[in-house]
Amino acid sequence: MTDLAAAVDRLAAGSLVAFPTETVYGLGADALSASAVRNVFQIKGRPATNPLIVHVADTAMARQVVADWPEEAERLARAFWPGPLTLVLPRRPELPAEVTAGGELVAVRCPDHPLTLELLRRFGRPLVGPSANRSGQVSPTTAAHVDFPPDQVLVLDGGPCRGGIESTVLALNPPRILRPGLITSRQLAQVLGREVQQASAPQSASPGQLERHYAPHTPAVLVQAEDWPAVRAGARRIALLASQELEPSAEVFLPMPADPRGYAERLYAGLREADDAGVELIAVLAPQGEDELWTAVRDRLRRATVRFEKP
Ligand code: TXA
Ligand code: MG
């Protein structure tokens, strides 16, 4: 049996399948089955107050879960789907309440990965898909990083994720970004022909978004270059994630790309490598760029780390 056929069988049985996307790996289950959706919350240890994104093969499938498909949604889907844009719209009453954490709105997106699009078409039903990590931990960007028991989660290997951080979550009427991601407010505004509010810093506005999130097991701090000597002096074994080496040198230096796209793609794998390096502290040099993609990267970094406080 091919992986895809096995995956469809598992989903039909109410079981879970991790799938690749262009952002991070998702933990998939039949979005129309309340018990399958409850399995996702249970295995992730996810608070029931944090709603799930529903993944669809196309706009026709999106209409199976939303009560209304406004013209602006159609324009955005034409421009960005398949791709890293999640739209928040009124839900259909048939959708299990667990998916939306009891709310009236549902988040939908069409992921840009051939294997997962084929999975959605063959299964013929929408799939919930939170990132395939335990709640609060680092999102997986390779199949090997999906860490659940194989008898409970089948992993479809679609190679490393190109985007590296999660989709932009957008609410409509008026258009506003709830979680910053790979698609920027400027790109959205261009398609809509009106202003799109950026995520209100420092807190993004998606419900259930935890302050501590995307976090490695090893303590991690976000540092400014001028604080580095003090941070370095305070730890014997330290890993540094930065786009340039700093003096005095770290035990483990994990070079990060200087451009925001490259940085995003590398971020979660870099945090995992630092976690596996056997250090007592992970330091991340705070990136300074103005580009809106840096805002999305900083949003993840801020939740994955604590800020270094001068002693
Ligand atoms: O790129 C992504 O979006 C990945 C891949 C797998 O598709 N998925 C992902 O799911 O990041 P998750 O569960 O890790 O994050 C879902 C985000 C959360 O911030 C959640 O609060 C928000 O989407 N969200 C889900 N449903 C919502 C709703 N009805 N209203 C507002 N925000 C919602
Ligand atoms: Mg997540």
Order of helices and strands: HEEHEHHEEHEEEEHEHEEHEHE
Strand order of the largest sheet: 7-1-2-6-3-5-4-8-9
Identify the bound ligands. Answer: threonylcarbamoyladenylate, magnesium ion
Helix fraction by DSSP (H/I, runs of at least 4):
25-40%
Instruction: Give a count of the beta strands, DSSP E runs of length 2 or more.
Output: 14
Q: Structural class of the secondary elements?
A: alpha/beta
Report the β-strand fraction as a percent range. Answer: 15-25%
- In whole angstroms, the N-to-C terminal distance is 59 Å
SSE diagram, text form:
Blueprint lengths: L2 H10 L3 E4 L6 E5 L3 H11 L8 E3 L3 H4 L8 H10 L4 E6 L14 E5 L4 H10 L3 E2 L24 E3 L12 E4 L4 E4 L5 H8 L27 E4 L4 H6 L4 E5 L9 E4 L4 H17 L4 E5 L6 H13 L1 E2 L4
Parallel strand pairs: 1-7, 3-5, 4-8, 10-13, 10-14, 11-12, 11-13
Antiparallel strand pairs: 1-2, 2-6, 3-6, 4-5, 8-9
Helix pairs in contact: 1-5
The structure holds threonylcarbamoyladenylate and magnesium ion.
The site of magnesium ion has 3 residues, from loops.
